[in-house]
Design goal:
InterPro entries: Peptide_deformylase, Peptide_deformylase_sf
Number of helices: 4
Keywords: Hydrolase, Iron, Metal-binding, Protein biosynthesis
Strand content: 15-25%
Cofactor: Fe(2+)
Bound molecules: the ligand CNC(=O)c1cccc(C)c1Nc1nc(N2CCN(c3ccccc3Cl)CC2)nc(N2CSC[C@H]2C(=O)NC)n1, nickel (II) ion
Shape: globular
Largest sheet: 5 strands, antiparallel
Helix content: 10-25%
Enzyme class: hydrolase
Order of helices and strands: HHEEEEEEEHH
Oligomer: single chain
Binding site for Fe cation: 110, 153, 157
Length: 181
């Protein structure tokens, strides 16, 4: 099973690389990676298992966070209507997106970032996405809310982007230069 020691932290080169497309149908090795990532997310959200194995809770995990620069990520997240989005995707992509943006009030966290990084991370509010699942099915989904944010956060990992790269110093932008007293 994947535990925190398997997750690379910021500074590891895999987090800043462009991940490679996975050849389909996925190999046994890639399927196993995808399955173990989804299992990690489920374990991390189970209080007993998380406590027992000292897991940080997450709703998304991307293969580069395991040092595997392949276009694979898993998400296991419930939206505000209690719909569960539990997927491992091979070669996920955003087909289209709303102009409108959204964000998590509390900012974002990442299993590869062992610190709090305050700030608003702008994400598209609604996205139409595509990816190949563990069952080797090509699925198209329309996502909004937290599932949409998680998808974008994990897709960023496949492109070497960290959530804090997107935190706009909007406070700094409007700060009036105060006269030096
Ligand atoms: C909804 N967020 C907030 O409420 C949020 C709120 C305050 C501060 C921050 C900083 C927030 N931000 C944030 N909180 C999360 N978790 C909330 C707790 N949760 C969880 C915890 C325990 C059991 C089950 C679960 Cl489910 C796990 C997930 N996760 C992410 N991200 C950014 S996108 C990928 C995703 C990720 O998995 N990161 C590891 N950001
Ligand atoms: Ni992350």
């Amino acid at each position: 099973m994947i535990t925190m020691k398997d997750i690379v932290r910021e500074g590891h080169p895999a987090l800043r690389k462009m991940a490679e497309e996975v050849s389909l149908p996925p190999s046994e090795e890639d399927r196993e990676t995808a399955e173990k990532m989804l299992e990690f997310l489920k374990n991390s959200q189970d209080p007993e298992i998380a406590e027992k194995y000292n897991l940080r809770s997450g709703v998304g995990l991307a293969a580069p966070q395991l040092g595997i620069t392949k276009r694979i990520f898993a998400m296991h997240v419930t939206d505000d209507k209690d719909n569960l989005y539990s997927y491992s995707f091979f070669n996920p992509r955003i087909i289209s997106h709303s102009v409108e943006e959204t964000h998590i009030e509390g900012g974002e966290g990442c299993l590869s970032v062992d610190r709090e990084v305050p700030g608003i991370v702008p994400r598209y509010k609604r996205i139409k996405v595509e990816g190949t699942t563990l069952e080797n099915e090509k699925v198209t989904l329309r996502l909004r809310g937290l599932p949409a944010i998680v998808f974008q956060h994990e897709l960023d990992h496949l492109n070497g982007i960290m959530f804090y790269d997107r935190i706009d110093d909007y406070k700094g932008k409007f700060k009036k230069e105060l006269p030096k007293l």
